[in-house]
Amino acid sequence: MLEGNIPPSLGNCQHLTWLTLSQNNFSGNIPKQLFGIATLSVMLLLGQNRLSGSLPLEVDNLKNLVELDVSENELSGEIPSSLGSCTNLERLCLEGKFFQGSIPNSLQSLRGLQEFDLSSNNLSGPIPIYLEKFSLQYLNLSFNDLEGQVPMEGIFSNASEISVVGNHRLCGGISQLQLPKCTVEKPRKHKMSLAVILIISVACLLVAVTMVSCSILCWFRKKREHQISGLLLGPKSLFRVSYDRLHKATEGFSSENLIGLGSFASVYKGVFHEDDTVVAVKVLNLQHRGASKTFMAECEALRNVRHRNLVKIISSCSSIDFQGNDFKALVYEFMSNGSLERWLHPVAEAEDGENKFKGLNLLQRINFAIDVADALDYLHNHCQTPIIHCDLKPSNILLDREMVAHVGDFGLSKILKILPEPINSNQSSSIGIRGTVGYAPPEYGLGSEVSTNGDVYSYGILLLEMIIGRRPTEPMFEGGLNLHNFAKMALPDRVPEIVELIPLASDQEEVDVTTRSYQNPSQSMAEKRKEQCLISMIKIGVACSMEAPQDRMNIVNVVNELNAVKKIFQGTRTHL
Length: 576
Ligand SMILES: *[C@@H]1O[C@H](CO)[C@@H](O)[C@H](O)[C@H]1NC(C)=O
Ligand SMILES: *[C@@H]1O[C@H](CO)[C@@H](O)[C@H](O)[C@H]1NC(C)=O
Ligand SMILES: *[C@@H]1O[C@H](CO)[C@@H](O)[C@H](O)[C@H]1NC(C)=O
Fold this sequence. Notes:
Leucine-rich repeat, LRR (right-handed beta-alpha superhelix), Transferase(Phosphotransferase), domain 1, eight-stranded parallel sheet, seven-stranded parallel sheet, elongated
């Protein structure tokens, strides 16, 4: 029952991610300030009001918007061709009443569209042929003034998914549409003048030049992005894959391929047989409230980030499964060495006897610590808007074939960004939403906003766990003692007593390490350096996991100090 104009000052809400004003009695123009909210990404729903005027050109500012609904208003004018810049749109509802002109060509860039409704307007001109190529699930063009041939391919091949009734000048299409046959226009014979031939030749030449430069560009890009990306990864947007393809890749989401299970999602290993790309497919559990928002949040968080220590998202799928249920999945590059959790706390593996998860050496641990700190520094300080991970823990650190660590699972980072309330009451009690017990900073339990300092806390705990070999949740850490205090009390002299038995490096490397310091190639020298490294790392872990957020170490310094630790370990530096 809200009425009057939509206040332009809503544009000041610069962190909104979704806005729904539908089914009210709003009138007047759509204020263009709404389109200045760069964060608006999940949905903008203004349908079923009495809004008039045109759809502002500025709509193209909302490059990340997934759903736009301005249907059943009194909007007029043409569909702005700038809408073609909103390339993430999946649902676009422009039905009723007065849009006119033709369907702009620029909309051919909206290749992710699944639901497109233009019905009951006053649109003229032909049905654009590019719609055949979209993976649409619903297309309603009825009750307009469209003319010419109805395409036959893609969505136009299934009469139950499209609607074109009420356009009296359409022809052709598949037979179920029962439209009149198109009368074939006889190609008129032109006498080509010299000028025309010249123009055509120039055009051809231009096209050829463009194609060559495009392929050179693409070639460069491909070279940069490894094998995986060749097939799936677009330069900017996430390519979408179909349910069918994921179903095949995971052998019907078989339990043999299940590699991870959480409340929000299940993760499967999959292989795209076209090019043998191995991937991890995270299927969202949409029964779980919030899972769908996690999906969009994670997509958005990862869409514009690229870093060697972040798990790379290859593709997404938002679709309907064979039973007709909603289905959402994210596709990542596959990390063949599993999670850090499995390496830190190996469970005896019965079947094949050999446990490959045994014994990370010190160099590997130092490298992981640097990898994860690099990733955090990037997320906090080098992204367009800082991204807070919120759930850093060993099971979310994944190791690739070369044993490089990658931070994964941005599901919670997304949720916290999107929730309209600071977290409503019954959710704040759930562990899931605030990170994980043991790794989440104490202030989150007291209802503080999430912050980069919070991530640093989790990082500190992770680092201590990597060195000491104990989880923060072990029974000995109930009551007053926690991993932070335990480590702090051992500094500096008792550090060797509390740390796990850590081999220096693998056999081959160990030789290198001991012979590298030529002056004193003895084992004891190496042992001494090892001890120095352990003490430094415990110090960093303790400084990161301080109780008060403002006392915690800055991640930039963490990165610097850890790199110094690595040099000490390698014998190229003697102290911090
Ligand atoms: C298409 O739109 C018209 C008018 O908005 C509506 O009456 C009709 O039910 C829609 N068709 C389908 C298949 O939903
Ligand atoms: C529909 O468009 C035509 C011109 O394209 C115009 O003459 C007519 O008034 C429009 N009808 C409505 C209801 O806006
Ligand atoms: C057409 O679409 C409907 C509903 O989406 C589906 O059940 C049906 O199998 C499709 N028909 C063909 C021939 O693809």
